[in-house]
Amino acid sequence: MSPRLPPGEIRVFAQYGEDFREQADVAVVGSGPGGAVVAKELAEAGKRVVLLEEGPPLTPQDYEWDGARSMTRTLREGGLRATRGYVMPTMQAICLGGGSLVNSAICPRAPDFTLERWCTQFELAHTTLTGLRPHYESVEKFLGIAPTPANVQGARNLLFKRGCDALGYSSEPIPRNVRGCRGSGECFTGCRSRAKQSMDISYVPAAIRAGARVLTSVQVQEVISEGRQAGAVVGQVVAPFTGRPSYRFEVRAKVIVLSAGCMATPVLLQRSRNLANRSGQVGQNLQFHPGVAIQGVFPERTDPQFGATQGYQSLHFLREGFKLETLWAPPGVLAVRTPGFGHALKRRLAEIPYSATWDAISGCHSSLGTVRARRGTLDPALHWQLDERDMPILQRALWVLAEIFFAAGARKILPGVHGVADELHSLREAEPLRSKGLRPKDLVCGGNHVFSTARMHGDPRRGVVDEYGKCHDLENLWIADTSVFPQSPSVNPMLTCMALAHRTAHAIAERV
After folding, report:
1. Quick one: which H or E segment has residue 38?
2. CA–CA distance from 55 to each of 31, 58, 451 (Å)?
3. pLDDT tens digits for 208-237?
4. Each residue of 252-289: pLDDT tens digit?
5. Does residue 326 sit in helix, strand or coil?
6. Predicted model pTM
7. Which is nearest to 290 in space by CA: 369, 189, 355?
8. What are the structural domains of the chain?
9. Cα angle vertex 408, ends 402, 410, to 5°?
10. Cβ of 249: how many Cβ atoms within 10 Å?
11. What pLDDT is stored for residue 48 in this prediction?
12. Using an 8 Å Cβ cutoff, are 465 and 498 in contact?
């Protein structure tokens, strides 16, 4: 067996030479926004913490600006993971820091009306804006979360503001976890300037400084339990990027925290003899923020590669069920939604320097699915349907995006909707986006915000965890990722995930 890892150290793939065992007060599975917060808070509370991450640590030298190459290195299933039923791509990261390495650093708080709905519908007592405020504030202070400054907005973001202002729609700079952003637009492929405060350069190093031991390139495959106690996690060392398995490991702990993500956490529970599932809710209630997007082309150059990846938003329509944002991704990724072939496609791609892409994410509560363990792999089988009852939300969002583009001065838009013209040159031409009876299969949606597959509920018969993240069925198994959300948070989920994880860590510290 390999010698025990000293406190305050990190182990990478090349350092494993044989099977090994570790011992801890707390084992945390997953280093994304949930797990990293838990590890840091508990290490600072004096607990012996082992943080386990399946992916490798990455540095700016490892980042690939090409979107396709980047996805194969940082995302599960090469970035090609998709739902069945309604086919929708969904991206989850596999690297130290999890999704925080490749997301756009967007950090709004969940609105009070959403949290009140959670409390009312899911029998929660303390998950209000007032109850979560100190946890939000702690995370915001540690990460330096602040509105995106004007000097890094770029034309793509400021045109969105112009359109909203012209229509009387409220908009504001997006709050993000960055320090010294240069507006390079590289959030998706990894921030080479290290301005984005992803978990691998913020919470994970803080956890290490406090004595946490970090194991990377280790795939947790099962939680070992007896009665109402979880005793250990076991699995294999896996090679970065290929997943080739090698040495076995076991980490025994007084408390186990699953922060593997909304897809991996339920699969891990299912593979662990259907653990923590007396309610039957593990892997149920799969929800997304289905996103629709429109590209607009302007008379003047926008140079969309410059400026914060997502620097402006509108919360004006939150109560209607959607949030509006600006967007940027590498051209090869955006080209997937660009219509046409051959010369027609090349002409449209040549317009990218004059374009902007804006999107809407929607809280579609009627659109549900399941996560199931796929035989022979830890990759999930995802079944999900976009419900007809949620179509009015998405159709309304598309119309509002069209309004904003033309109010901002766009000369045409590319809506990407089946049955609607590839190009629309005026709001009058865009009228079908409002009046046509669109169906789910007419839309090209993406969904990277995922929730509710191990949801919290005050009634143990209807949820997997209580509102502090402790599994109803076990005394020492906790969950801290977006799978515990009872429903969509109405806005980007990272900050709320971290606030809930902060609360979970402090609840654990009081018991261990």
Report:
1. helix 33-44
2. 9, 9, 22
3. 999 999 999 999 999 999 999 999 999 999
4. 999 999 999 999 999 999 999 999 999 999 999 999 99
5. strand
6. 0.96
7. 369
8. 10-58+196-279+452-509 (3.50.50.60), 67-93+147-194+287-450 (3.30.560)
9. 65
10. 24
11. 97
12. no
